[in-house]
Specification:
single chain, alpha/beta, Rossmann fold, 6-stranded parallel sheet, 6-stranded mixed sheet, 12 helices, 18% strand
Length: 340
């Protein structure tokens, strides 16, 4: 009995000390700041963790905060991997006030966007337009303009006398519509034909569009590596209409010792791509104004929520980053780092 009494007293003392410690600790913790937002938007993008979509989300989030809107990246909020289509379905069923979407453009996606529109949820589509849907706005590139910019770079790489012997492979996302890829090819051919002053089909280079059907970065990398392994005649020029494909093609050219034999014209301009352009592993790249894209999609949704309508198309600026510009960008970043 004495031993039991001692144990009980010790347990009571220990409990008291622990409770006192926890109470003091809780008193020192500042209460978490709670924000009351006017609206809740969802951000849904295929491969949302890529540099391109991280920059777009960052810009969109800054714009959303100015409007007192909470923008949620569903790919990171749910704690597991979902396809963009599944995330879109979750966003629609959750009754969000607005949705920013970039991903596949098939019938199922179109039906989900229509369901959102019928429920009064605004949907803005980025990059790959879902033309058959009731989406409120498309924020993205003018693909004919993109093709013209690619053509200007192609002209610098090929000999006009041997243009017909030049082969070009355009790597596009499997979700890109056939109309968009056709516009790129048409723009390239129109520009080169105009520069040659002739209207003869045989003077144009051979242009092939290769669709990369990939679920993630790893499968995209494997698919692009297979192009280098399986093709007997590799293209002279490779156009990458995707930031991930640009990096994968660049890495494959280096790994297979084909630098200089295959010229790459890329898409997007992160640190890796800019460094590759400076070293001329990538000839040049098309830089997308991610800040403009991010702000525009939120502005379009905000306008739709407040006025009931918005512009159906908002273009995004693009520019060429060649070796000279890449060098300037790297020097500016180096100076900024030194100043810090």
């Amino acid at each position: 009995m004495i031993v039991g009494t001692v144990i009980m007293i010790a347990a009571a003392v220990a409990t008291g000390i622990t409770f006192h410690f926890i109470t003091k600790t809780m008193q020192n913790i500042e209460p978490e700041e709670v924000f009351d937002y006017d609206r809740h938007y969802a951000f849904v993008a295929e491969d949302s963790q890529s540099d391109l979509w991280q920059e777009v989300f960052r810009s969109a989030n800054e714009q959303a905060k100015e409007y007192n809107i909470y923008l949620e990246d569903l790919s990171t909020a749910l704690g597991r991997d979902y396809s963009a289509r599944d995330l879109l379905r979750i966003a629609v069923n959750s009754g969000m006030d607005g949705i920013v979407y970039s991903g596949g453009a098939d019938k199922k996606v179109s039906d989900l966007i229509d369901k959102a529109a019928d429920a009064g949820i605004g949907v803005v589509v980025l990059q790959n337009d879902v033309e058959t849907s009731k989406r409120q706005c498309y924020v993205g590139l003018n693909y004919y303009e993109l093709g013209q910019m690619y053509a200007i770079q192609i002209e610098k790489l090929i000999d006009p006398e041997n243009m017909a012997e030049t082969s070009i492979d355009i790597l596009v996302d499997g979700d890109m519509s056939e109309g968009a890829s056709n516009l790129i090819v048409m723009a390239i051919e129109d520009y080169l034909r105009e520069q040659s002053g002739e209207d003869q089909e045989q003077i144009l280079p051979e242009i092939v569009v290769t669709r990369i059907e990939a679920e993630d970065i790893f499968s995209a990398e494997e698919r692009i590596r297979n192009i280098f392994l399986e093709k007997e005649d590799l293209p002279d020029i490779m156009l990458c209409v995707n930031s991930v494909y640009t990096r994968c093609a660049y890495q494959a050219v280096v790994d297979y010792n084909l630098v200089g034999q295959i010229q790459i014209i890329g898409y997007f301009a992160n640190d890796t791509i800019i460094d590759a352009v400076d070293k001329q592993v990538i000839f040049s790249t098309i830089s997308v104004d991610t800040e403009e894209m991010g702000k525009s999609c939120i502005q379009a949704l905000y306008e739709y929520n407040n006025m009931g309508y918005t512009n159906s198309y908002l273009p995004v600026g693009i520019e060429v980053v060649d070796q000279a510009k890449a060098k300037r960008i790297m020097e500016e970043k180096s100076e900024e780092g030194d100043n810090r």
